[in-house]
Amino acid sequence: MEVFLVHPGGPFWAKKDAGAWSIPKGEFDTEEDPASAAKREFKEETGIDVPKGDMTGLGVIKASSSKMIHSWAIQADVDPKHVKSNVFDMEWPPKSGQSQQFPEVDKAAWFPLAAAKTKIVKGQVALLEKLAELTGADLDAGPPATTTAKPAKKPTAPDGQVSLF
Description:
single chain, five-stranded mixed beta sheet, two-stranded antiparallel ribbon, 3 helices
């Protein structure tokens, strides 16, 4: 099984890899349905609509930042080459008074479940554990994570690929 993860953009994350990747996610207010917010955030961070299919709820986890993450999984074919994120403004360099734009997500990739466990931020490992529990997959089996993302390509085994959001 492989999972689709995104890498945050901006200068703070530029040279980080292990423990830096995430599911596409974002904040929502109390009036917005969590599933609708997740779909909106997936689109904002990737430029791609959530593929059609059955969404499987993975529940809610508390991230290390104390934020609550509502998440879903869907068996899907998402091509990382087509990811085009929205941007954010940030003062850069620090204390320069200059504002620069950076992509919220600078890259995306598919990772085998075991590799995803080393790539994803520590606070989101529980999402992979829930996915493995629901599917019967072995979270620790498979090839070890490498220091670089798998080259972007069209998934060749859609039955084994799951996008989390």
